Amino acid sequence: MRVKSVEKIFTKLIIFFKEVKVELKKVNWPTRQETIKYSLMVVGASAVIAFFLGGLDFLFTIIINRFIF
After folding, report:
1. How many domains would you assign to the chain?
2. Per the confidence metrics, is the pTM higher than 0.85?
């Protein structure tokens, strides 16, 4: 009985991975240029947000230090 349940699990796993392979073939993958463009957009947006938050942190540090000292 235990062997049958193990076989059933492996059979289901094999079916699952076959279905995954079929679905991955249907995916509309981005081109190399699109990937580069989108990656640069993410890096640029991250840099802008980092500088903005760093500026706010610097500003609040100055303000808090004036109140404390």
Report:
1. 1
2. no
